[in-house]
Design a protein that fits this description.
By secondary structure, the protein is an alpha+beta fold. The strands form three sheets. It has an eight-stranded mixed β-sheet with strand order 1-5-6-7-11-10-9-8, with helices on both faces. Strands 15-14-13-12-16 form a five-stranded antiparallel β-sheet, with no helix packed on it. A hairpin with a 2-residue loop joins strand 9 and strand 10. The structure holds biotin. Biotin binds next to helix 5, strand 7, strand 10 and strand 11.
Length: 338
Amino acid sequence: MIELKVSGEAEVLRLLKGATRGYVSGTDISGELRISRTSVWKRIKKLKKMGYAIESIRARGYRLAETDGDGNKKSFSGVEVLSGLTTETIGRDLHFYNELPSTNIKAMELAAGGAPEGTAVIADTQTGGKGRLGREWFSPPGVNLYTSVVFRPDLTPPEAPILTLVFAVAVAEATEEFTGDGVELKWPNDLLLGKRKVAGILTEMNSDMDRVISVVCGIGVNLNMPTQLKPDELSSKSISIKEYCGLDIERARFAQKLYSSLERWYKIFTQSGFPPVAARWRDYFGVEGKKVSVNTINSSVEGICLGIDDDGRLLIREPGGVVRTISSGDMDHHAWAR
Ligand code: BTN
């Protein structure tokens, strides 16, 4: 497992990418970042070692040669994500790994060790990616995004599950930025494109009896995964953004957009509560008014879906007219196929 913590190089990369005339001088970099010329040179050397093609020309400075999209692994790195990050906190403390058992496990460990809110973990591949309800999350290398972010909300443990819906709106918004349309949410937090699952969220928490200590939001998004990579049981139920819209999705750019959306919706929630988030969540919800079935821990509920209430619970009107309020469960996927 290789961890990269690399904000110095990311700052230089950001300046190289922003250079309007192609070149940026060593003096300008050193002035802008308030570091010595030697430090500039060391960071350039490190970036080159990571695979960035940087030319240096006397009297003009440094220039970043065109890099490819994201077919190439070098362009998905902690440096690449940090160099275009526009958030205040989320992803600023970024732990990037080539391989991990699970980014959620790593983020929970970091949170237990006192990591601040916004700390994020990314892995190119996971060997034990975790899904909801004890399922596995298929996590091949080179194609998708697997990330987990630490939050420290001021909530009681029973209030925490609502966060999953906040995170779901953020993932939906980031995805829509790339697809332009087609994004739907399945309660509580599956993201669908063209009725097939494109992303999942696993929220885990560490708390004492009356306060949440930390929450880890784990997000897996199928970005460029081709159909033939998927195990048979997933191929008809899942989809990647590339399969949906035919475009290669640059993983670093997706992560940057995702972190911005997470920061925005988390702020809306902490400042204004759940109602504005619920309104946006409902926009993405495709089965209001339709017949659905939901498996809860000890029963199965069938009826007409009335949407969610302002606490994020699912409302189902049973055939007899009784409205059931469900706090946790798994919705039948077939509702979307009808
Ligand atoms: C689901 O079952 O829909 C939730 C899937 C969550 C998968 C992500 S991938 C990044 C993070 N690390 C994990 O082990 N799981 C989550």
